[in-house]
Every structure is written in C-alpha cells, then in structure tokens.
Amino acid sequence: MKALLQNLIQLQTLESSGVKDKNAAASLAELRAKIPAQIIAHYDRLVARGKKGLAAVRGQVCSGCHMQVPLGVVMTLKRGDDIQICESCGRYLYLPPAVETEVTETAASPKPERKKRKPKQPLQPA
User: Fold this and answer.
1) Which residues lie below 8 Å from residue 45, measured CB to CB, with a gap of 6+?
2) Could you give the CA distance from residue 33 to residue 40 in angstroms, rounded to a whole number?
3) Is residue 47 situated within a structural domain?
4) Quick one: pLDDT at residue 63?
5) Residue at 126 is within a domain
6) How far apart are CA 7 and CA 28, in angstroms?
7) Which residues pair with 48 in a beta bridge?
8) What confidence score (pLDDT) does residue 106 get?
9) What is the pLDDT at residue 94?
C-alpha cells in the first residue's frame, strides 16, 4: 500500500507542477497504469471538482478539510495496511515522512515519573 500512496503522491505532484512535455506525459501515463482503476477514478473525480486528490494528515488533522481524523485511520496509515479516505472531504490520506517518525516517537516515549507526595502531618490537639 505504501507504493500505491507513493505513486498517488507522485501523480499529484506531476499534475500540479503544470509541466507539459513528452517526458512528463509519459511518466503520468506510467504512474496511472500502476494505480488500480477504482482509485484513479475517485482521484480524477476529486481533481475534476477542483480539489486535490490527496491530503496529508498532520497532528491527526486532514490538511485538506482541517477536520480531525480518527486515531484508527492514522494508525492504519502508519502501518501501511490499507489506503484511507477522509470521512469529511473524500480525499485520500497519507502521512508525510516527518509525521510517521513523530507518531512513533511519541508512542514510544515513556511517561514522566510522578512526583511523590509528602505524607500528611497528624493533627495536634490545641
């Protein structure tokens, strides 16, 4: 699945760059051939509406619609098991490389130690 997302990211980058020469057209056709028909059809529908087909997830928020993404979706993206679509805007979601390492670091970091309380002093009769 990571290869599929990488192909989609490259496709969006090439299409948004606006370069129109034979090499770009050949690489676009090659990338489109690597992506399954259902996924490319959904991507093309989004692009036809004037939207980007992909959105990065930063801080558990979709960068396309700025809505919070469920943690389960983020973890599925992190594992690379399946491709995910934003429930709000319909864009394909991906984790940028910096976010992948950030998520693993925060999940692996130990919790800070709790401060110990001082024992209460018994009340002395007045």
Assistant:
1) none
2) 9
3) yes
4) 94
5) no
6) 10
7) none
8) 53
9) 93
CA distance 19 to 15: 8
Where in the sequence is the domain holding 100, given as residue range(s)?
2-105
Give the residue from 120, 71, 113 showing the smallest Cα distance to 93. 71
Q: Residue 6 has which token pair? A: 């990488």
What pLDDT score does 107 carry?
Answer: 56
Amino acid making up residue 83: I
Number of structural domains found in the chain: 1
Residue with tokens 């800070």: 112
Mean pLDDT, 10 residues at a time, over the chain (126 residues)?
Answer: 86 83 83 92 93 93 94 92 92 81 56 78 75
* Residue 107 amino acid letter: A
Look up residue 63 and give its amino acid.
S
Q: What is the CATH number of the domain that holds 44?
A: 1.10.287.1490
What is the C-alpha to C-alpha distance for residues 121 and 96, in angstroms, rounded to an integer?
A: 54
Q: Flag whether 125 is in a domain.
A: no
Classify residue 121: in a domain, yes or no.
no
The CA–CA distances, whole Å, from 85 to 62, 106, 116 equal 10, 24, 46
pLDDT at 74: 93
